[in-house]
Write a structure and sequence with these properties.
Largest sheet: 2 strands, antiparallel
Distance between the termini: 47 Å
Number of strands: 6
Radius of gyration: 19 Å
Order of helices and strands: HHEEHHHHEHEHHEEHHHHHH
Number of helices: 15
Helix content: 55-70%
Bound molecules: heme C
Number of domains: 2
Structural class: mainly alpha
Length: about 300
């Protein structure tokens, strides 16, 4: 098996390297991680709009899966370093018509992910990007929970394509539960991006961490905490500029606290620490961020100005 040679992992490594070596400018515009894989000209649309998703179920399993779906470290290796997660291609479980990454995409909205998945067995190395599918629609992978084809597909994607760590059964179950729950919303193709997206995702990560701890799954718990930290980073991107220095420092401090919580050996203590952190965040920093949202880059006018 071509484990070390995960094709897409190598391509992302090259793209990430190109990105990392771009010289920072003194007057550099705010850096948005998502623009690393966004077609030129689509930045404003991608950063201000997103496909609306209505979930068929919203229990802790689905929420846990949604948190993992947005976590780069689930994919491991170079994809994680570039900040790429399942949600980079499948925004809210849907598609991403603006996705463009050198070596991975042909045209915007396409990616080559199954190439080495299949070619490792068949022994060819074709570059064959296809349209990123909307997971709300029936596709080639059966969603039937009995057949478990979806779990097998996702497992192969993580381990074989992206070079990620072997996911635990609880993680796979959560990811599959989320994918199975993704539906389009009647009459609402897109919605605005808001601070509330990140706050909800942070709450999902906390719920997911508790669920994983309850299942004795440390790896799942750590990744759920990584999910929360990633979302804090996305918030920090939107609170750019000197006026928000204090909030960015608080976001960074919160992320470091979560990192330490992920290292707590005793799972009972870890549970308590996550609850305490979440309560502190929701009653403190999250409130402050909400009050300042209209001045942040979640606001379309401020975003436009920053992208100019
Ligand atoms: C680089 C972009 C990219 C990333 C990252 C990505 N996907 Fe996909 N995904 C695709 C593309 C392209 C296809 C279509 C592959 C094909 O049809 O051969 C696909 C197919 C799928 C399908 C099958 C849909 C069907 O037809 O039934 C599922 C399920 C899926 N992805 C889930 C995931 C999950 C879960 C993750 C994270 C572990 C993930 N994807 C990460 C691009 C991506």
């Amino acid at each position: 098996m071509d484990r070390g040679g995960a094709f897409i992992g190598k391509l992302i490594a090259i793209a990430a390297l190109l990105f990392a070596t771009a010289a920072p400018r003194g007057d550099a515009p705010p850096a948005f991680e998502q623009l690393r894989w966004t077609a030129p000209g689509a930045a404003r649309t991608l950063l201000s709009e997103q496909p609306a998703t209505c979930l068929a179920a919203n229990n802790d399993m689905v929420r846990s899966g949604r948190a993992l779906f947005g976590t780069p470290t689930l994919l491991g290796g170079q994809a994680a370093k570039a900040g790429l997660s399942c949600a980079s291609c499948h925004i809210n479980g849907r598609d991403n018509p603006h996705f463009l990454l050198a070596g991975v995409s042909a045209a915007p909205g396409t990616a080559d992910v199954t190439n080495s998945f299949f070619s490792a067995a068949r022994g060819n190395g074709l570059f064959d990007p296809v349209l990123i599918p909307d997971l709300a629609r029936p596709g080639k992978v059966a969603r039937d929970p009995e057949a478990r084809a979806l779990e097998a597909f996702i497992r192969n994607l993580i381990v074989e394509e992206f070079g990620g760590q072997e996911p635990t059964p609880a993680m796979l179950a959560a990811l599959a539960a989320y994918v199975r729950a993704v539906r389009s919303c009647p009459g609402e193709p897109t919605v605005a991006r808001r601070l509330g997206d990140q706050l909800a995702a942070i709450a999902d990560g906390a719920a997911g961490a508790q669920l994983m701890i309850g299942r004795g799954d440390r790896q799942g718990a750590r990744l759920s905490i990584a999910a929360m930290r990633h979302q804090l980073g996305l918030v920090a991107e939107r609170y750019a500029g000197p006026g928000f220095a204090r909030d960015r420092a608080a976001l960074l401090a919160g992320s470091r606290q979560l990192q330490a919580i992920g290292d707590i050996a005793d799972v009972g203590q870890m549970r308590l620490a996550i609850d305490r952190w979440t309560l502190g965040f929701e009653t403190g920093l999250a409130q402050r961020l909400r009050r300042a949202e209209a001045r942040s880059l979640y606001d379309p006018t401020h975003l436009d100005r920053a992208l100019r």
